[in-house]
Amino acid sequence: MRFLLSLLLVAAVLVCLPTRAEIVVTDASGVGIRLAAPAQRIVSLSPHITELLFAVGAGDRIVGNVDYGNYPPAARALPKVGDYANLDLEGVVALKPDLVMGWQSGNPPAAVARLRAMGLQVHLSEPGRIEDIAGEMERIGRLAGTEAAANAAATAFRERHARLAARYRQRPPVTVFYQIWKQPLMTINSKQIISDAIRLCGGRNVFAQLQGMAPTVSVEAVIAANPEVIVASGMGESRPEWLDDWKRWNTLTAVARDNLYFVPPDLLQRHTPRILDGAEKLCAHLEAARGKRTLGNERGKAGK
Predict the structure, then answer these.
(1) Percent of the chain topping pLDDT 70
(2) pTM (two decimals)
C-alpha cells in the first residue's frame, strides 16, 4: 500500500511540473524547424549569423563558425568549418550540432540539402529588409532559449531604426550608386538590404531596377545614370583606392561635388544590429551631399 501511495504521489508531482513545449520556428525558406529543447550546440554557416547569435545572448552555444566570422572578437577563436560558400560538411557533422544555422542566399543549396539529408536541423536566415533583422533575432532567441535577451535586443534595434527613419527618410532624395567591387564593376538592386539602408537615408539607388541582387554594370551605365553620390565598400576597414578612379570622369555630379564616400562593409553588408551603425554613416554622407547642393546654389547666386 505504501509503495502504491508513493507511485501516486510521484505521478501527481510529475503532472504538476511545467513542461517545455516543442520549439517550432519557420525559417526564411519556409521550412519548419522543430526542437524538443533549446539548442545547446549551434554551428553557424555565415558571419552575420555568428554575430546575431552573440547579439541575442547565445554566443556560448556556438560550437562551429565560418571564415570571416570575426565579430565580436570572441568569435575568432571558434572552430571553423570553411567559408560560407565552401563548407566543410564533414567538419560540421563532427561538431555534433543540434542546430545548424545557414544563410539562404549565401550557402550553396546543395550543401544545405546534404546537411538536412544527414538528419541535421538547418535553419536558414535571410533578413531582406533592415526591419526584418529584429524578427530574426527573436526567432534565434526562441531556438537558443535566450528569449529575454533576444527580445530586448530586438526592441532596442526597432527603436533605433525608427529614430533614423524619422530623421532622414523624408529628406530630399539623393541619387546613389553603391559600388561593391571594381572588376567586375558590381552594384546592388532593390532587393539587397543595402538598398534598404539607402532608402532609410532618403536616397535612391540608381540601379534598383536591375535583376540579381549583385548585378554587374558598365562604367558607361554609371555615367548615364549620373548619380549625385557614389558609395564604395570594398573588403576591409580602409577606403578602397579604386573609389578615387571615378575622379577621371569629372562630368559626374558625384565627382564634381566631391561626393565619393566609403562605409566599412562589415557595417553595411551584414544582416546584423551593426547595420544601423553603417546606416548612420551613410545617412551622414547623403546629408553632406545635400548641403553641397545648398552651397552650390549660394555660390551661383553670389556669382550673379
Answers:
(1) 90
(2) 0.86
